[in-house]
Amino acid sequence: MAILQVNDIHKCFDGTEVLKGVSFELESGNALAIIGSSGSGKTTLLRCINFLEKPTSGSIVLKGESLFDSSAADDWEKDLRRKRLHFGMVFQNFNLFPQYTALENVMLAPDLLAKKEPDYRSKKALIRENAEELLDRMGLKERMSHYPHQLSGGQQQRVAIARALALQPDILCFDEPTSALDPELTGEVLRVIRTLAENHTTMIIVTHEMAFARDVADRVIFMDEGVIVEEGDPASVIDHPTKERTKQFLTRYREGNIE
Amino acid sequence: MFWTVTLTLLKGLLTTFEIFAYTLLIALPLGLVFAFASMSRFAPLRGLMNVIIWIIRGTPLMLQLIIIFYGPGLWLGHNIWSGDEAGRILATVVAFSFNYACYFSVIFRGGIQGVPKGQREAGQMLGMTKSQIFFKVTLLQMVKRVVPPMSNEIITLVKDTSLARIIAAYELTFSGYSFMKSDGITWPLFYTGLFYLLFVGILTLIFGKIEKKLDYFQ
Question: A42, A49, A232, B204: which has the fewest C-beta neighbours closer than 10 Å?
Fold first, then answer.
């Protein structure tokens, strides 16, 4: 059974319909890449799924539990924090907290969550250990006590990935994780995401990196003007697209005319 | 004579400091309240606040001081301020607090809006509550943004206290000036400048320290 079911999501901003009915499913342990040009609605879709934006209509089911259903009169604000915790989010601009070191960035949220529990003292050491181990896995063992401004973009993004993983989300979401990086720094971030995919981390990746999407994703969705135009395994969508709009997009991409 | 002048000026300095300290004490929190009001989602409140800020920033502080001190006596028929020194200082503090709260509110608003939206969103995605996001994530970034413009305003406040002379509060400048009238000597007036310089010098050092303390992040 799919871990995530997204049904007929619509999203309007001030009367402009950005998402015009998007549905898809995601299997546990799979990586899903969402591609498409700027303004196609892919980032909005991601933000609707992980509860940063409220969809105008539609429903979201995670592990069989309905998290959002516009036809039922459920309260958006209710349990919003708990719902968001199912998702980890890696932003385009990293959004690390500048006043904390790399390690503190990773520890902050788990620490705040544990504070309400009675055995906080015993957990504290565990949280720190876990954070150190995550940063080590990201190849940042020597950078744990650095502040974000002392790190390169690629290092900052890897800290952001560790920070998102620290809460053990069901699904890890990436919003164009390499778009704000210098070209020579994208590799180190993509490598980390590739490793996560090999370890069957459930992921949704909004990306412009077509070669990366083809290599890493189990499924690819191509979006245009707020709808899913084409969907399938990477080889078919990226190498042998059937829809005209997908072909056009990929041709323009290869010519380097995207943005 | 030098000691007489120095003692009188020190007394004036005390009044100046009182006006300064009480004004800060009131205007800082009031400015934060004004800042939130001017960003309110409730349009009438936001509009009202912006009109108030426009009027207060758009008219001379001296005029506001005169209106607040003499206004009640003229229009209400009885003076709400006691005629003694304490009453004059109180009226000054009220006028100054309101005036400075308006200026502070604009600085605070800039500080609050200057923190990127992504910081709050990152906190939300990490399951943090609204108050955790404010206290653990955005507050310090706001403070860092606000310190340099605030230091400017607060230094201006030191010198604006001399306006209290217009309602005959015995602050520093008034004390120095009084020697010109009574003894026909002008040097005490210049001597007051030294007191202001020292006062502002100390503040500059303090703000420098605070800025340096917040220098560890960007």
Answer: B204
